[in-house]
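#structure-requests
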Amino acid sequence: MHRFDAETAELMRAVFDVTRLRLGYDQVPLDGSASPAELSARAGGTITAEGIGGAHALKIFDEVLSRACVSADHPRNLAFIPAAPTRAAVLFDLVVGASSIYGGSWLEGAGAVHAENEVLRWLADLAGLPAQAGGVFVPGGTVGNLSALVTARHAARARLAAAGRPAPSRWRLVCGAEAHS
C-alpha cells in the first residue's frame, strides 16, 4: 500500500504536471456545471472492484470532473469563497495532503491544532474579541451553522441547568427563508 514504485512516480509526475498547468493560468477557466447524465456519460464507470488506476482517475478528474465545477478563484465567481485558492495555498495543500495529517485532536495533530489556534487567536484579536474567545475552522456554511446550533444548544442546556429548569424533550429553532441550505 505504501510502496513507492514506478507507477507511483509516474502518477506523481502527472499530478505535478496538472498542478503546474493549473497554477500557471493567468486567469483560470470559469467552467460550469453538468447534469448527472452528462457526467455519467463522460466519466464512465469509475468505481470498480479492480479500480481504474491513478493515471486514469487523474485524467477523468482533469478532463471531466474538475470542468463540471465553477472555479472558486475565477474573478467572475462572486457567489461565495469556499477556499483560499492562492498559488501558495494550493502548493501547501499538496504538502499537507502528502503529510497525511489529522488535526482533529491534540494527540494526533498537535502541530496542526497549534497552527489553527494561532490563526484563530490572530483573527479574534483583529475582531477585538476577548482573550477567552476561541473557535475552530470548518469547511463551509453548512458545518458552521451546525456547529453554531450545537453550541447554542449546549449553552441553553447550561443556562437551564443553572436555573434549575429541565431541558426540553425536543429542541426547536426558527429561521427565515434565507437560511443557508
